Amino acid sequence: MLNTRAGELGRWGGPGYTCIRRSLFNTLSATRAGAGRKAKGGTTTISSNTYGYIRVSTREQNEDRQLIALREMSIPKQNIFMDKQSGKDFNRPQYKKLVRKLKPDDLLYIKSIDRLKRNYEEIQNQWRVLTKEKKIDIVVLDMPLLDTRRGKDLMGTFLSDIVLQVLSFVAENERTNIRQRQREGIAAAKARGVRFGRPPRPLPENYHNAYQRWKAGAITGTAAAKKCGIPLSTFRYRAEIYEKAKLL
Questions:
Q1: What is the pLDDT of residue 160?
Q2: With respect to CATH, is domain 6-178 assigned 3.20.20.370?
Q3: Which side of the chain, N or C, has fewer Cβ within a 10 Å radius?
Q4: From 23, 57, 86, 233, the catalytic residue
Q5: Order of strands, edge to edge, in the sheet holding 137-140?
Q6: Are 38 and 12 in contact (CB under 8 A)?
Q7: d(Cα 40, Cα 195) in Å, to the nearest integer?
Q8: Angstrom distance (rounded) from CA 7 to CA 27
Q9: In 3D, which of 214, 212, 216 has the Cα closest to residue 224?
Q10: Residues 210, 216: contact at Cβ < 8 Å?
Q11: Known catalytic residue: 57?
Q12: pLDDT tens, 151-177?
């Protein structure tokens, strides 16, 4: 199983992590091979209930990829829970509902570790809550080494912990990179003159007349703003823009 899924390790996390993945995979392959010889002939524990969890960050994102993967595991439709919101914390309605249902020896499938969260420390903590306190098993489909049903001895737990720590780091690092790329993209767009936010409302038809009278001292700013039907602060703000435009 380990050798046949080696390609999945190579695809996870992007090219920047190739060396980390290769080194980790080679180490775990050799170690798990030894552990496998000791445990040869063992059987996989069948869970009493099987569940699946899906998360997409926004309502516009498509959950089909995760849903198809979970359905291939023959998970009952009513046991698949899905949230469409950010993974900034675990305060998600469907996830909380799922956790309340979980009982010892249940099995939870997720497509990838970042569907839980993208924060290194919180992924670690939540994993311990699920496996130690709730006493359930977890299978990460994109990472076969993260299957708590296998290797429940000290060596198996050690190997799972290593994989979990590396993938948690990759998930948080990817989140950091995404934010950095967003900031750089926004800065580059602003440098090109792209404006963000709502476009300004057009000036009232009588703004020019009110502005000229205000500049000439014939009326106060309050009176000019009232004639235009806008707040005084807006009148003055637009006056500054108006004056700069006249100088161009």
A1: 65
A2: no
A3: C
A4: 57
A5: 80-84, 50-56, 107-110, 137-140
A6: no
A7: 64
A8: 16
A9: 214
A10: no
A11: yes
A12: 666 655 666 677 666 666 666 666 666
